[in-house]
Amino acid sequence: MARSLSIVLHAHIPYVRDPEGEHPDEQEWLFRVLSESYIPVLKMLDGLTSGKDQLPISFCICVAWSPLLAEMLADELVQDRYVRWLGVEIDRADEKCSRTKHDPPRNIEAHGERDQLVDCLKTFTHDWERDVTGQLDVLEERGCVERLDTAATHAWLPGLANVPELLNTQIQLGSDGRDGFWLPELGCSPEVAGALAANGARWTVIEPSRNDDSSPIVLEGGLVGFPASERLDRRISHFPNTTVEEGEGIHVCPVDFESLGHWRRDGLIFLEALLRQRPDGFRLESPTEYLNRNPILPLGTASLDGRAFLDGEVHPHLDQLARDTVAKALGKSPETNGDRPLVQLLRELLLAQSSDWAFLAAADGNGLGKYAKHRVRAHIARARAILDGDASALERSEAEYPIFSNLDWRVLVSRV
Length: 416
Description:
By secondary structure, this protein is an alpha/beta fold. It folds into two domains: 3-74 and 131-293, 7-stranded beta/alpha barrel, CATH 3.20.110; 315-413, Families 57/38 glycoside transferase, middle domain (immunoglobulin/albumin-binding domain-like, Up-down Bundle). It is 47% helix and 10% strand. It contains 14 helices and nine strands. The chain is globular.
């Protein structure tokens, strides 16, 4: 019987929209990942399944596309800056082509870089009309991609278990009724599993089991946890001699979307080859398809860890801010519409909860580490100012962080 292989691509970049232009390096990170990973991978998937140039290849892979990433890619300010950035980079590539015209190997490389940038500009502005997330929707409709829900601001959810209202808010704002839910940093706990199940999720990906057993596990509320197999992006360096674990059942392999071209230039080649020449004896499908074929699952025991992800300096402040925000919401009448301060307070809190800041701050001493510490402290300080009735802080926050335009504060007090 064919075993199942499920590839789960997860895409996320910290919210680096910067209307004042004070952090150009962080925004350039988004532009480079967009040019080197997001656009090329989506174009590759389109080419394999559209049938335009050859017989379409049948497969289904999972993609978790974070809500913050979707917000940035849909933002007109970010789009305009990306187009300008591409123009500058194409000019630099032209200069490099001229400088290296008497050095054939370097000149070939320079022309390749220029061609990729020009292709990205055409794809983004003409073919996709600046709608990158819309192209992902096209692939989902075609059946080659199954999208997953995920936390609204890529929060490490076990850290919110003490304030269930905020845990549910992160889940509800990031959910669109899909079967699978991607856990940022694979962070799960009994409280998180129960909340996901109550919100309608059928399955998620969890940390690998300690005995290397890839069998699905039934968690709180009937949520199915698929232990992550060894990450495929760690095998790219061994391509084309990579192998997939032996054994029956399903192997769920998470892949950082950014490793496909941005972090590793050969990552895109690796994924395309895997989709074209899948390992013998493996069925390439999503966990949803696997569950539909295997309704009776082997039971296992989950090794779920509720460890604190944020350090002791920040987490107590976030925890208290969450409690104060919920208390303010509980003091409002459910009939109250459009409470600007409470809505923006919630936006600041959600952004402060992003796991990006702890991850980047761990790289203390570099620019990103300092930027991450600044961001989380600034979000907490501004949220406190809004909570205290500071009108100028509210206006600055609304101008800088207009995420989730239809955000309703009543999500804090809603019941799933």
